[in-house]
Amino acid sequence: MGKRGFGSDNNAGIHPEILKEITASNGWHVTGYGSDIYTERALSVFKEHLGSSTETFFVITGTGANVLGLSAITSSWNSVITASTSHLEGDECGAPEKFIGCKVLIVETPDGKINPELIEKHMHGLDFEHHSQPKVISITQSTEMGTVYTVAEITLIADFAHSRGMLLHMDGARIANAAVSLNLPFKAFTTDAGVDVLSFGGTKNGMMFGESICFLKPGLSIDFKYIRKQGMQLASKMRFISAQYIGYFRNDLWKSCATHSNAMARLLADKLNQLPGVKVTQEVQSNGVFVIMPSDVAEKMREHYFFYPWDEKKSEWRLMASWDTEEKDIEEFIELLKRELSYLSH
Fold this sequence. Notes:
Helices cover 38% and strands 16% of the residues. It contains 13 helices and eleven strands.
């Protein structure tokens, strides 16, 4: 049995309450492809959390959620503006370009967050047929750097987009961690802040699989059921995605999981900051910790724990806490790191 590490919150198992929910929905036949009581209930729960106008569609993967959600609001001659660190740019293997045909324009940012001033450089060539037309700004909440947009920051970007006839998309792969960090309901920093389309994830916070695409403004989801089918993301046994979301929202399970992983990340960062030759590089606002440590020490640590490099030139590494991370996992990691650092000093 492997140890719990800090490579990714995707590496964690499924929360027992989610497994119970899947089992509870498994005892009989129901109509496939989403025409079932579990999907009906899950869709109503999303309206409760995001607003009565919300139209939600379940898909299988996060990449599917991002790409298909964007495909509903863009054409091949459009461009999507996003951070250079975003999943859309760095983790979708060119899927937006392949399946939408649109152009992805990136903004360099030190903390994963973009703003109108940074976006402005791409606002040219408008209504000029030789130039791709900016249509969507895409932000990630919480960001791939572990930072969190405030409501004011999101509203500013939304106003910037809407004043130019554009739309705002949010990649919410770790949206629960952001909600806990902000201490706000989901609606406050999505629908109410001007977000138009939201990818709402749960896989990184205790769910087994499945993501949702939430259209927060009326009229954006027209014909999306055909887009989902052509995009190969229509699950035949959709109840097993829907049931998970029912369990995820019940008694705020999402909140307890994200609260714990955020707290474990802060604890890990606090302990790392006490070590010589080690530096936490980003403010820890969710469940990610970015740290610079000597490269040879990091490689020694990776013989025992898997974690990803972030910037190999700086020897910066990403460590992720999960819903099931325990304090003893952190203590064991820190003790080993202390030993490796002491060997280096000798």
